[in-house]
Each structure stands twice: as C-alpha cells, then as structure tokens.
C-alpha cells in the first residue's frame, strides 16, 4: 500500500533482522513509536491490538502532540471473544 500512496509512511519492526531487512530500514525489536522520528502530528493513526498495546501506543502519540481526533483504534483479544 505504501508503494502506491506517496503520502503514506510505513515502519516495520521485527524481532530478528536479516541483512536485507537492515538494508530496507526494518527496525529491530517490538513496536516502539519512540523509535520513529519525527511522528507527524497532522496524520491519521490506526491502532489495532489488545487493550494494553493500544493504551501504550495511544499515550505515546498524545505525548508527541498528535490530536485525539487523529487517533482511531480497534481492540481485539480474548476479552472480546463471545461464543455463546
């Protein structure tokens, strides 16, 4: 998607990097928005994951000056599973 949308920036995080990953700019470790600099303030952010993950990323974005109205999220995890 990032290749066809010039205004979109993509950041990839992997636990273990290959030499190709390093050349391609992949970031090592778990997702950490503090490793992305600068965080554009006038962008739309979409966070998807479990509650704790969303809360952590949301706080980082707010602390970096992103408006609440520019952050959307979708929660998933075992707490949302309802089979009956």
Please specify the SSE layout and strand pairing:
Elements: E1 13-14, H1 19-23, E2 27-28, E3 45-49, H2 51-63, E4 71-75
Parallel strand pairs: 1-2, 3-4
Q: Total helix count? A: 2
Radius of gyration: 15 Å
What is the global morphology?
globular
Output mean pLDDT.
Answer: 89
State the helicity in percent bands: 10-25%
Task: Please report the distance between the alpha carbons of the first and last residues.
Answer: 37 Å
Beta-strand percentage range: 15-25%
Number of strands: 4
Class derived from helix and strand content: alpha/beta
- The succession of helices and strands, N to C, reads EHEEHE
What does this structure look like?
There is one protein chain. The protein is 21% helix and 17% strand. The protein is of the alpha/beta class. The chain has two domains: 1-30, no CATH class; 33-84, no CATH class. Strand 3, helix 2 (51-63) and strand 4 form a beta-alpha-beta unit. The protein is globular, with a radius of gyration of 15 Å. The termini are far apart.
